[in-house]
Design brief:
The chain has about 375 residues and is of the alpha/beta class. The chain has a domain of about 40 residues. Helices cover about 40% and strands about 15% of the residues. The strands form two sheets. Strands 1-2-3-4-7-8-9-11 form an eight-stranded parallel β-barrel, surrounded by six helices. A two-stranded antiparallel ribbon has the order 5-6. The radius of gyration is 22 Å and the shape is globular. The two termini are about 20 Å apart. The mean pLDDT is about 90.
């Protein structure tokens, strides 16, 4: 199995300064590399004054972590395409790929919070208009891939028309004319985005997705799915759909779970009692407050199951743990959970989310070190002594 270490950079408002969060990100990235993780993953969220999401630019953060490490891959998980101009994003990711020595993994997403999307995208591709959001996302995705693979890019889409018509090439006075992108009368007629990524044709592309139709769309567009909130049985159902579609698109028979990844909240201690004591208040705060206010509880249901609304004071920890949404416990019990999910879904790639909001760095590192010394080796990960 491959393992990723997801670092959202959560802090509670007023808990610590951004310089402290950045220092912790660097330290835990180095520890994750030493523990045998294959990747560190970074999120993208904006305007996080409440402290929950304080990672507005995963590309820049990824460069900082690439400089602090030497082997571990840098996962952008995810860059939210409607927040970016796809050509600028293509340039930035290509630069990061070169500067990291070809260590980039790139997940893309449509975004979920309207206050970010509606205020960053002049096209208005926010989630209140789901069809428009999908259309923008898919066009931006294909335009970004074209920027990485074409030397004379032209584009005539719903949202982008490139290059702008009737624009003279400002380099015409001194730069030798290349007929691929400059006409005889010096009009700029095509674009060559540079640099191209170090990894050819471009870094592995992922899609953060939870709704079933999204798995089919991911397969159709060459994206590998990363899912978080689905139950084990619902995940198997989605992986089956992905396998069926991707096999047809790629012209080969994929295994169940191949090219698919799962994100799970994780905390490990020497005893179950200690793991629960430390993790539970932070789980309750995150799922009962933050996530519970964004996504319906129904997202955690098994296929065909109807979940009643949560009762006041009902334990989110118990609800999630009983459905294998939480990997919390001893190294042995968490290893058994991972085995159980792998046997059911064919899972080959697991991202572990150890950095709970409000959890101290000391407690986070204690769990990370146990993951590296006692869980990952069970699945073939190699612990290294340094970077």
């Amino acid at each position: 199995m491959r393992f990723g270490y997801f670092m959202p950079g959560y802090q509670l408002a007023g808990e610590s300064g951004w310089d402290e969060v950045l220092g912790r990100l660097r330290r835990e990235a180095v520890l994750a590399e030493q523990a045998g993780f294959n990747e560190v993953w970074l999120a993208e969220h904006h305007f996080g004054a409440e402290g929950w999401d304080v990672a507005p630019n995963p590309v820049m953060l990824g460069l900082d972590l690439a400089a602090a490490t030497s082997r571990i891959r840098i996962g952008l998980g995810a860059v939210i395409l409607p927040n970016w101009h796809p050509l600028r994003l293509a340039e930035d990711i290509a630069l990061l790929d070169h500067m990291s020595g070809g260590r980039v993994e790139c997940a893309v997403g449509r975004g979920i919070t309207n206050r970010e999307l509606a205020n960053l995208n002049l096209h208005g591709a926010d989630r209140r208009d789901n069809d428009r959001n999908w259309a923008f996302f898919l066009e931006a995705l294909e335009l970004m891939k074209a920027a990485w693979t074409e030397d004379a890019l032209t584009w005539d889409g719903e949202f982008f028309q490139l290059p702008a018509k009737g624009i003279k090439d400002s380099y015409a006075a001194w730069y030798p004319r290349d007929p691929r992108w400059r006409s005889e009368d010096d009009e700029y007629i095509a674009i060559n985005v540079v640099p191209k990524p170090l990894q050819r044709p471009y870094p592995t592309l992922w899609n953060t997705v939870d709704q079933t139709p999204g798995f089919k769309i991911a397969a159709e567009h060459g994206l590998r799915p990363i899912t978080w909130l689905r139950s084990t049985q619902a995940m198997r159902e989605a992986f089956e759909l992905y396998r069926e579609t991707a096999s047809a698109v790629q012209g080969r028979e994929l295994r169940l779970g191949e090219d698919c990844a799962l994100l799970r909240t994780c905390y490990i201690a020497e005893t179950m009692e200690e793991a629960r004591r430390i993790a539970e208040p932070h789980v309750e705060a995150m799922y009962g407050g933050y996530l519970g206010g964004i996504r319906s509880r129904a997202i955690y249901a098994e296929p065909g199951e109807t979940l009643p609304p949560a009762e006041p004071g009902e334990s989110w920890f118990d609800f999630l743990y009983g459905r294998d949404h939480l990997f919390v416990g001893t190294p042995e019990s968490v290893g058994e959970q991972i085995e159980r999910v792998r046997e059911s879904t064919g899972l080959e790639h697991l991202l572990l989310f150890n950095w709970l909001p409000g959890l101290s760095e000391r407690d986070s590192v204690a769990s990370l070190e146990l993951l590296g010394s006692e869980v990952l080796p069970r699945f073939g990960a190699e612990v290294v002594s340094g970077t």
